Write the structure tokens for this entry.
Amino acid sequence: AVDGGENGVNAFLHVNTEQALAVAAEVDAIRAAGGAEAEALHPLAGVPIAVKDLIVTIGQPTTAGSKMLEGWMSPYDATVVEKIRAAKMPILGKTNLDEFAMGSSTEHSAYGPTRNPWDLGRIPGGSGGGSAAAVAAFEAPLALGTDTGGSIRQPGAVTGTVGVKPTYGGVSRYGAIAMASSLDQIGPVSRTVLDSAYLHELIGGHDPADSTSLNEPVPALVEAAELGASGDMTGVRVGVIKELQGEGYEPGVQARFNESLEALRAAGAEIVEVSCPNFKYALGAYYLIMPSEVSSNLAKFDGVRFGKRVLPAEGPVTIERVMAATRAAGFGDEVKRRIILGTYALSAGYYDAYYGSAQKVRTLIQRDFAAAFELADVLISPTSPTVAFELGSRTSDPLSMYLNDVATIPANMAGVPGITVPGGLSEGLPVGIQFLAPAREDARLYRAGAALE
Ligand code: GLN
């Protein structure tokens, strides 16, 4: 017995069939009429897309997976949404996520979990489990996700889909509800590397509305994917990150990973080993920096400006008491846990010991990447140490949930891009292989990913 819609997958929080069909009909009419307008259609015109419900949309609700924003409608579109609308891609609806993108299983959604289409008893990863599951279940060919610590790549891995975290600043984040602003990135989710390349080229590029947006053109990603699909990796140095394999990685994951290395070698790649000794501190530093930024970013949910407002059950109605009542009712346990952690880490007297140390670790991780990219053009690791785990098996132990992010977090800490591609099955469940590239070199991910696909 399974709850939720879509044969139990429950990937969508909101579906807007009418709006999507109207756009599809418009594209059909343009194609039928032919001529210059038909010629000018974007290659993705008419291709439906699902949007993670952390990204704001006019005309459809945006909840961030939280009761705090239940029923809230954004008065504006995110820049990426403006771009997919301009390309005439029908927006199917908004996909489920862990509340405010905090989690690795989508079980922290206030609207019930999404289930993995490969096995409805298992999690689809998180926080973007809805986007990944929608694509894996053939409900949508493309989706948008956000990746702060792996929320595009880890769900991609455990659902057998492709997911890309672009270079920090490569895709505008204007209209993505901020989780941890120094780490957040919007990116594509798809079934093939080439599909992600088309979507990434569409949504990427400079946006004056996002002050962290890189002021440079999007790299030639489609071309890189096509080159990779030809299967030729001659001369490409692929660096195996010593610290992101072996102990802690399931044997089935390690086996598929080893086979991927063989496949790349057969395609002409040169496999080298690189060491990133400071990656072992990445998870600890992330779980200080991210909650610190969360505690600041979520302060705007005060019961006054957006969404929910709850009055105190008794006693005087002061601003402080309305704020407290609203947050008590509006935020779930995981969100509260992180806000408390973050405010503690930032408090006077502890700031240097926690946030300050974590920022130093961040620099060390960046140096590890720089050294590794001297020896290799792209780096490779399993995307997640495990295949999809069973629903409910980690919810009571936050640390075990956090451990699932061990391989994805270093990229966010350094701002470098990453991709996950399907790497076969372990006991019937998908295993993901991750490639990482230097900042601005996203094209290398598409070449390597398509070669392995
Ligand atoms: N699992 C990570 C976390 O819980 C993922 C966050 C993300 O990428 N949005 O923080």
Summary: DSSP finds 15 helices and eleven strands in the chain. The mean pLDDT is 96.
